[in-house]
Amino acid sequence: MTLYEDYETETSFRYLKEIVAILEKPVCIIGGGAVYFTVNEHFKKEHGRNYLGSRDVDVGFYIDKDLDKEELKTTEFGRALARLSECGFQPLGFRFYKDINIDTGEDLTLEQSRETPIHNIFKIYIDQ
Fold it and tell me: Across-strand partners of 59?
């Protein structure tokens, strides 16, 4: 038994690679993705299967607490937020999300999301 469905971890890993590719280096991966990269090789040797993976993508940024809102836009964090929006992610509180069709693995537009039954949608989250 696994904690997550394969489509969840596969989608998360696919977006992790895409997000890392569009961000300026260095990138700080945190959360479940970081644990996966840290332990998976040894876990697989020990248990014969991959570590559980992650349902979302967590990326860390250093932010100078003294920056104002306009200065923040010019930082890697600010540019990352703009890139995520350009890639079709929608802001939701402290994270961004995109709806994915569970059956096809394809991104859904906002209109397609409204027309797709909720049980056929997987939300991929990017936490920052």
Answer: 29
Inside any domain, residue 77 = yes
Q: What is the pTM of this model?
A: 0.78
11: domain range?
A: 6-127
Q: What is the largest CA-CA distance in the chain?
A: 50
C-alpha–C-alpha distance, residues 128 and 120, integer Å: 26
Q: Within a domain: residue 1?
A: no
Indicate whether 83 belongs to any domain: yes
User: What three-state secondary structure class fits 73?
Assistant: helix
DSSP tag of 67: -
pLDDT value, residue 2 = 65
The tally of domains found in the chain comes to 1
pLDDT tens figures, 2-48: 677 888 888 888 888 888 888 877 778 888 888 888 998 999 999 99
Distance (Å, whole) CA 56 – CA 116 = 21
